[in-house]
Write a structure and sequence with these properties.
98 residues; mainly alpha; 2 domains; 4 helices; elongated; NDUFB3; respiratory chain
Length: 98
């Protein structure tokens, strides 16, 4: 569908996520063990605690999100206003009026 070729999505191996790498989840695991419980799906939350980007890069991505569509839309709007002579100036500043 779509007419373009792309590589199929690669599903990561679940064994790359280890609870031992995340101290918060390790604490949850210990608390569950104290009560005789075990969460077999706990490793599914490891990715939430592992950051692959620096704080600076996350902030840049957050601040620039939407620019790809926003900047061209802004420029098109300016062009249309110039072409049709649209002016949003205040009408009470006419020449000769003091």
């Amino acid at each position: 569908m779509g007419g373009h070729k792309s590589e199929p999505y690669k599903i990561p191996d679940p064994n790359i996520y280890k609870i031992e790498d995340v101290s918060e989840l390790k604490n949850v695991q210990k608390e569950l063990a104290k009560r005789g419980l075990k969460d077999p799906w706990l490793r599914n939350y490891v990715w939430r605690y592992q950051s692959t980007q620096s704080v600076f890069m996350r902030n840049i991505v957050c601040l620039t999100r939407g620019w790809k569509l926003g900047v061209p839309a802004f420029l098109i709007t300016l062009g249309i206003e110039q072409y049709f002579g649209i002016d949003y100036g205040h009408g009470h500043h006419d020449e000769g009026h003091h």
